[in-house]
Amino acid sequence: MTKQDVVTILTEPVDTGEMLMLMLHGEDGGMKNGVFEYTLGAKEDGPIREDGKLVMDIITAE
What we know:
0% helix; mainly beta; 62 residues; globular
């Protein structure tokens, strides 16, 4: 599946030229919907995999 024009809300300043890793996480488990609760190794809100590979991309801020 391919998506274009995806919008991401940043919660801290980013300088032009900085590289960012965008990774899709699920909304499984956790205590709150719409709140990122994942910590390394947790099952709640964990990363999404397709064919065993993480759904992610690395971009450069403009």
